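Protein modeling request. Please complete all fields; requests missing the sequence field cannot be processed.
Requester role: graduate student
Desired output: 3D structure, token encoding
Chains: 1
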Amino acid sequence: MSLSSNNWPDINTLLSFRDLRAIGHEEPMEAGLLVNKKQKGIFSCYYEDTAIDDFISAELYDELAGFSHDQAYSDYLFLTEIVLNTLSYSKKPSAINRRLKLFCFKNMMLHLPNEQELYRTDLFRFFLFFHPCKEDLLRSFVLNSKGFAYKGEQIDLHQQIKILFEAIFNKKSHFPSLSRFTEQSLSLSRDIVLSLLQSILYPSPCISFLDMGKNKDLLARIFTTPALFFDLYQHDQKKFFRLLEENIDQYIVKSWDNDAKLQASVYYGATKNDAIESYFDRPSRLFPKKKYLVEFFIDLYVFYMLRQPAELEGLITFFAGKPRVQLKMIAILFSHPFYNGEAKLQLVQSGRDTLLPHGFWTERLKKMKDNVTKS
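Delivered output (375 residues):
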């Protein structure tokens, strides 16, 4: 069973609901058969009174294990859960993980002409990581230039998800946990998963997201059309760095135990460090929409540019006369999940770690360099 296209919500519309929730919109929003609304502290997409991922439960995983000894069924269900969860929003347990997971998904929808496979592979890996996801599943699924791979073999993931749902539809007596769900609600969930996967399997260079209103400033235009970010960085770095400097204090870096109002953009660690927080000139008032746009802009910068040692050197060079800006951006960088051990190792191996001003990252890099030298 497939749903009528007249009732079919555009995937970008569902993603826009997710963005609107993050900047404070609370009222229910409709798209075709779906209503995005809040239940038990979580905003989700509902068909009638059923959230699109309600059918996924611990009981269903157990029933799948009893139905087939093939681990792939459970893995495809878990991937279905991860994909559908992209459209949900709540501040707890981790708005940061949810934001970065959505960032990864959106950027997998964007076609880039250069180094496309490398970026998309990393984005998908981070996408799974921010769910969070078991280590074995992180290794099992890969997005590469040929599509999706599972445990080292290329697969037609679209077809595998269809097979999973066909088993559920045709052998429903084996899955008592699904007795309260109609075939139409399950079909809707399946079709949304397939459409979301299709949007990242076939990325577009012209993708546009939520329009942030008339007379958009540059941050809003970049958010709506991420391709503008790359155009700005390549052709007008002076304007790019001015935009960064003017807005960097909207990007909130805090310790895990010092974020009572859940405002952090990233966490630098578990113990409060006044030196790190003193790098930033906090605005007297934070505007959720502005903060969200700044986070998207800086997340783009970290993921696509600053993981490359040469681009980090470019930042340091440009702000050579503004050490506070250097400290702010490097504090963000070394707190950011995108700047993982692989990126730090590349920095050390390039020798450009010596260009960084002193900060909490200095000792970490020294230890890494010592280990590299010993090995």
